[in-house]
Amino acid sequence: MHFSLIFNILGWLLTAFGVTMFVPASISYFSGGNAYDNFVVSGLGTIFCGIMFVLMTRGSGKILSHRDAFLMTFLAWFSLSLFAATPLYNSGVVPTYVDAFFESVSGLTTTGASVMTGLDKLDHGILFWRCLLQWLGGMGVVVLATAIIPFLGVGGMQLYKAEMPGVEKDKLQPRLKETASLLWGVYLIFTVICALLYKYGGMTAFDSICHAFTTVATGGFSNHEASIGFYNSPFIEGVCIAFMMIGAVNFGLHFMFLSKRNIFVYFKNVEFRTYMFVSFAAVLFLTYAITGAENGYPTYLESFRHTMFSVASIVSTTGFATEDYSTWPFVFSMFTMFLMFVGGCSGSTSGGLKVLRMMIILRQGIRELVKMIHPHAIVPLKIDGNSIGDKIVQAVWSFAGLYVLSFIVIATLLSYLNDLNLVTSFSAALATLTSLGPGLGDLGPTANYGSLNDSTKIVLCFSMLLGRLELFTLLILLMPEFWRK
């Protein structure tokens, strides 16, 4: 383990992160807010700690191995969350540091679960900081998925390494820089287009930038208590749907599309086709199911509008809302749990188990059934023409098993620590593990997590980090073998 190099990189990250705090400080100052001094002090403190790390680790090596990357990834997410919480706590918008840490973890992991109230009256600097955290975290997730997760062999970007520049084993850092720069370009293009369309649809310039940040990052933080429903605009909802779905698609495909300027690169990808099919099938079925039902809508058109937005928000694990879908007929809640669990595509900003892994699990199940009928048959497992080896299949099954087990353990802890009912505890565990944010029951899209006790919030912070870092990236650090030479 190259600890000196790890903390050297962490120092540079903290230094850059501290500089970003001066942006919300400026916004707060020029908008007449009073939180600018908190951002300045927090930014200077973060920069000081970052520079100290850099100075203490001068002369460290230049090559970051994949084992180093796992540790650095966790330390980066954890330490940035700690420092991101300081301006929130010092400004007094949350009562405790645990609340501030919860909000910052939720932001950087693009979960969107919040403990804050009165958003419509908050300092513009605070609102911008929350959205900026999600935007920065969203790209961090994509880089993680394209550069680090493939080494775990749990089904993901390793299938697209031929088309999308990846990284070389034990020589991560040079290729990571190349990958990150390409992805940042794609990410920035979509963010700018989304912001311009929001502005055209009637949002203020400030709101359009903030919501573009959280839409493309599939984060779900809004500047208003009513979320996207505040605008009551079909055009804004349509823009939001489009970019939530874009954010939940493999960014390797976006890069290929912008490079080749051929939209068919999407439709040639079986994961994308499956993702779109599941989404639209869910919309059509749920539109039919809730139209005319109690707590539903009287017409198909109205049901379709709200169902399409809610499904796009849930399946992309964004968490925006136009209506309180937790009050709709129970069939929608059941579908919500399923769509949460599946999530978006691999190599995207969305959370969940991911469509690619679900496809591998399903096809492996079918293959086992075929082999039961024909024991001597050779049944290859392929996706997009790529053969899936038994090691990857085994790893995917292990990942899915740990995912379910983690979900059950977290839900049980929530029920024990805060005496939550079954629906609330299960949906909160799944909503944080999958990075959706809003749950069901007492933690639905119109409620927040502020009423929970501190121990419950800490468990949920762990759940958000665990889900965002794809389980193995965090759990691998607990293995004794990881620390042995």
In short:
The chain has helices spanning 3-20, 22-30, 36-56, 66-90, 97-108, 124-147, 172-200, 205-216, 234-247, 251-260, 264-267, 270-290, 300-315, 330-342, 355-373, 390-418, 422-433, 454-468, 472-475, 480-483, and strands at 382-383, 386-387. It is mostly helical and 485 residues long. The longest helix is centred in the middle third of the chain and has 29 residues, at 172-200.
Keyphrases for this structure?
485 residues, mainly alpha, two-stranded antiparallel sheet, 64% helix, single chain, 2 strands, 20 helices
Helix and strand sequence: HHHHHHHHHHHHHHHEEHHHHH
Q: How does the overall form come out from the CA principal axes?
A: globular
Query: Rg to the nearest angstrom?
Result: 22 Å
**Helical segment tally?**
20
Strand-pairing-aware structural class: mainly alpha
- What integer is the average pLDDT? 86
Oligomeric organization of the protein chains: single chain
| Main pleated-sheet profile | 2 strands, antiparallel
Tell me the helix content.
55-70%
Termini separation: 8 Å
- Poorly predicted runs: 151-174
Q: Taking strands numbered 1, 2, ... along the chain, how are they ordered across the largest sheet?
A: 1-2
Q: Roughly what fraction of the amino acids lie in strands?
A: under 5%
Number of strands: 2
